[in-house]
């Protein structure tokens, strides 16, 4: 019975990780479109480059977290 509950917990955790992946892809696409639009509006603005660097830094951290969680589940 305890092995079954651990399996159910892992299964529910895997479903929530899949939902996090889908949300992450949606946020990634919307932020990319928004930043490209800002880049077209303010071509020489330094704030757009700062936003891009912060965005890719946060994206790298999220990718590392997702890889760590998926290794824990496997």
From TrEMBL:
<protein>
    <submittedName>
        <fullName>Uncharacterized protein</fullName>
    </submittedName>
</protein>
<keyword id="KW-0812">Transmembrane</keyword>
<keyword id="KW-0472">Membrane</keyword>
<feature type="transmembrane region" description="Helical">
    <location>
        <begin position="19"/>
        <end position="38"/>
    </location>
</feature>
<feature type="transmembrane region" description="Helical">
    <location>
        <begin position="50"/>
        <end position="69"/>
    </location>
</feature>
<keyword id="KW-1133">Transmembrane helix</keyword>
């Amino acid at each position: 019975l305890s092995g079954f509950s651990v399996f159910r917990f892992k299964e529910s955790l895997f479903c929530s990780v899949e939902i996090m992946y889908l949300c992450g892809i949606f946020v990634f696409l919307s932020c990319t479109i928004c930043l490209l639009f800002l880049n077209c509006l303010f071509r020489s603005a330094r704030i757009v480059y700062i936003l891009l660097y912060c965005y890719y830094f946060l994206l790298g951290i999220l990718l590392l977290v997702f890889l760590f969680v998926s290794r824990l589940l496997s």
